[in-house]
Structure to design on (582 residues):
């Protein structure tokens, strides 16, 4: 019996095999019942407990459940996903930059296609929205393409109003034509020249090398004659854009700046700083100082509104830090002949824009028509609510005219040579396929045409894509017809293919996606189209973020996207540059 009894040590961790007992501890009551000898003699005490017949007084301890720490599963998953996303983004960005900087081989231009059919020659006049969107979507392996423009870069005009204030560097929104042409699958030739004459009957264009405004001079050959050449075409894509419309108002060409080209933005900035520095030399109470300190914009469309907003931001956020009290002196005035600015936008957005301008301190003058301009003042006719008119004189230091489009001289010359274009006054007349009325080999798009669509970059962009798709299908059609002649036994087979291609050549249909405008103080308005049945009118700081995101996504090259975002980051960190040169 004694051999089968195993001593139990209080608090022992290990229990011998064959014995299954709970962990126990001695209570105060059991300790009190022990004799002093038992307490002093551990062995005797242990023996007495082992051979005692009384029930030992032990208290059972319940097992303690140790809770394991929760694993951070969701956090770890989110962290890993974030790291992978960042790595993937930078990998994709690096690849896009590499592809843009190192384009692949192009199919060289040739007289014949691989099937023996003759390659048609396409000449593109212009380097704006219509021309570049057409070039980017055209299958240049099927045509010999030549692009002719006196401007050897594509200018992203929606962000041009941000250049005079220094928010964006002008180079960030310029993309070289040669870079764009090099990225196409087939070889594209570029000629920096201006078309001075077009012969629709002979299908040839006379070109002249010209220099941009503000350049140092022109290139000449023997006897100081300008460099000229002639180029022929099978198809002409005419996209020369438009010039500024002054509506015959005296004094505007001589005294006002425009905002049409990159050089215009630089000139506006220089004039603004010239006026500021000259005014600082005059007494504060001087009327001449007040005149120089008035920046006037004529035209309440998106360009005029955005320019006024950008200049006001420049004054309030940057110039006032370095020129004391300039925000109180330097005024921004916006003149519009119509009752409202941004007339094509939703009425709620028009009202919101007026409130923001009032809050910022932009002087908004609506129902004010410019009648004359001299080197110091803008003379206007103000239409009152009762229909009466008052003469108003607005002094200015810097004047910018953003009043509309007019046709270029070469467009008027071309229209005069085609009978069906004799009545065209506001632009070339085209059919639903953008083909020039009266000529089957000239296609026109963009601001140089007169259609029911508004003269905007969005329209020209969609027209370019449409026309490129049209020419891609036209090339297939031409190849099928060539094979029919070359191999008469396949005529029936290719007749069905020809019919399918013709059915796919649908007329152009403009899809309005909305309008955007920056109105200052990190706020913008967006008049968006939701399908063909609804519009969404948005305004505020979140719309400003959408405005920026939309325009960055519309930039053609990855280099330009990075440069524009970098410009915005630099302004947020360091502010705009306050020197005359941008």
């Amino acid at each position: 019996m004694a051999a089968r009894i195993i001593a139990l040590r209080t608090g022992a961790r290990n229990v011998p095999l064959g014995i299954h007992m709970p962990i126990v501890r001695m209570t105060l009551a059991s300790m009190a019942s022990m004799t002093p000898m038992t307490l002093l003699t551990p062995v005797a005490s242990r023996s007495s407990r082992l051979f005692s017949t009384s029930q030992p007084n032990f208290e059972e301890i319940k097992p303690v459940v140790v809770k394991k720490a929760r694993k951070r599963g969701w956090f770890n998953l989110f962290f890993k996903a974030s790291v992978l996303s960042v790595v993937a983004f930078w990998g994709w960005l690096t690849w896009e930059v590499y592809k843009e900087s190192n384009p692949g081989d192009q199919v060289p231009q040739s007289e014949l296609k691989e099937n023996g059919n003759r390659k048609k020659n396409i000449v593109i006049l212009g380097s704006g929205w219509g021309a570049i969107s057409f070039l980017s979507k055209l299958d240049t392996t099927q045509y010999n393409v030549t692009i002719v423009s006196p401007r050897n870069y594509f200018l992203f005009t929606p962000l041009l109003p941000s250049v005079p204030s220094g928010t964006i560097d002008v180079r960030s929104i310029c993309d070289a034509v040669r870079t764009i042409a090099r990225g196409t699958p087939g070889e594209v030739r570029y000629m920096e020249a201006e078309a001075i004459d077009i012969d629709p009957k002979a299908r040839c264009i006379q070109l002249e090398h010209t220099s941009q405004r503000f350049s140092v001079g022109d290139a000449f050959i023997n006897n100081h004659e300008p460099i000229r050449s002639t180029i022929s075409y099978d198809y002409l894509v005419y996209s020369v854009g438009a010039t500024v419309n002054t509506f015959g108002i005296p004094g505007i060409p001589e005294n006002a700046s425009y905002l049409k080209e990159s050089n215009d933005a630089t000139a506006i900035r220089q004039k603004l700083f010239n006026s500021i520095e000259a005014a600082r030399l005059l007494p504060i109470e001087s009327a001449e100082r007040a005149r120089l300190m008035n920046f006037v914009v004529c035209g309440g469309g998106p360009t005029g509104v955005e320019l006024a907003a950008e200049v006001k931001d420049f004054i309030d956020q940057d110039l006032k830090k370095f020129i004391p009290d300039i925000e109180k002196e330097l005024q921004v005035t916006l003149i519009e002949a119509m009752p409202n600015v941004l007339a094509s936008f939703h009425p709620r957005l028009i009202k919101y824009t007026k409130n923001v301008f009032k809050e910022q301190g932009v002087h908004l003058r609506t129902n004010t028509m410019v009648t004359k301009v001299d080197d110091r003042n803008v003379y206007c006719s103000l239409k009152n609510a009762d229909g009466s008119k008052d003469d108003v004189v607005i002094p200015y230091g810097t004047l910018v005219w953003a009043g509309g489009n007019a046709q270029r001289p070469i467009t008027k010359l071309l229209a005069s040579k085609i009978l069906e274009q004799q009545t065209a006054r506001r632009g070339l007349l085209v059919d639903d396929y953008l083909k020039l009325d009266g000529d089957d080999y000239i296609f026109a798009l963009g601001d140089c045409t007169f259609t029911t669509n508004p003269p905007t970059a969005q329209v020209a962009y969609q027209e370019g894509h449409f026309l490129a798709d049209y020419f891609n299908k036209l090339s297939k059609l031409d190849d099928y017809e060539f094979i029919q002649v070359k191999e008469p036994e396949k005529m029936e087979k290719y007749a069905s293919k020809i019919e399918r291609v013709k059915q796919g050549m649908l007329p152009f249909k403009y899809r309005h996606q909305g309008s955007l405008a920056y109105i200052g103080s990190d706020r913008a308005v967006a008049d968006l189209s939701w399908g063909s049945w609804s519009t969404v009118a948005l305004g505020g700081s979140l719309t400003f973020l959408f405005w920026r995101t939309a325009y960055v996504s519309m930039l053609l090259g990855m280099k330009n996207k990075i440069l524009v975002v970098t410009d915005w980051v630099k302004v947020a960190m360091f502010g705009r540059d306050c020197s005359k040169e941008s």
About this structure: The CA atoms of residues 32 and 39 lie 10 Å apart.
